[in-house]
Structures are given as C-alpha cells and as structure tokens.
Specification:
122 residues, mainly alpha, Arc Repressor Mutant, subunit A, 8 helices, 70% helix, 0% strand
Length: 122
C-alpha cells in the first residue's frame, strides 16, 4: 500500500469516513482501473452524492484526484527507478503509452523522458 505523508494523514483523519475509505482504496489500488461508480458502491453511496462529497472533502473531483495521484507516482517512479516509461505507464493502469505521455506532460510541463533527463543532469 502507498504510504501517506503526515499532512495527508492529518487531513484524512478529519474527513468523512466513506471518503477516507475510498481514498485509501485508491492509494492501495493505484494501478487498477476503479470507476467512480465502483468507489461509490463500495461505500454505499450514489455516484452523484459520492462525487459531490468527494469534491467537498478533497477539493477536486474523484477523477482529478486519481489523475494527480497517478502522475505523482509516475514522477516518483521516474526519479527512483530504472523502469521504462512504457513499464511505468502499464504499472499505473495505462495501456497506451502515448496517452500516458500526453497526460504526464500536461501535469508536469515536460514529457516523462525529459523529466527523467532533468533529474540525471550533473
């Protein structure tokens, strides 16, 4: 399971229990495709009510949260491992490398390859 930092833990402990369970599930299953409807069902809520409450608690929609979570994990994997971009993309549930690269560039401002090259500069 993905580790949470102290600030994240503090804010998670104060949020609605159902949203906390959903967030923990997302962190534990980062490479899986979990729909918003599946998350809502897992905490016995309608999709619309879950999305509304999630946005109140997390200040972003569930899909935005998942995207941010995956991109931060991609950054971590690019900086801490020797996995290829294709392997990282697959590990995070993206089967299409070009889609992953576009999303990463939108999030980080640079391509995954450029991100890694910046880290390796002396």
């Amino acid at each position: 399971m993905r580790r949470f930092n102290i600030a994240t833990l503090a804010s998670i402990s104060q949020m609605d229990r159902r949203i906390r369970v959903a967030v923990e599930r997302l962190h534990a299953n980062l490479g899986s495709r979990i729909s918003v409807a599946d998350l809502a069902r897992s905490v016995n809520m309608s999709r619309s009510r879950f999305s509304h409450l999630f946005k109140i608690e997390m200040s972003q929609s569930p899909s935005q949260y998942v995207r941010t979570l995956r991109m931060r994990e991609a950054q971590r994997l690019l900086s801490e491992t020797f996995l290829s971009v294709k392997e990282i993309s697959a590990k995070l549930g993206n089967l299409d490398r070009s889609h992953f690269s576009r999303e990463f560039e939108k999030f980080s401002g640079v391509s995954p390859t450029a991100f890694r090259k910046r880290l390796n500069k002396p």
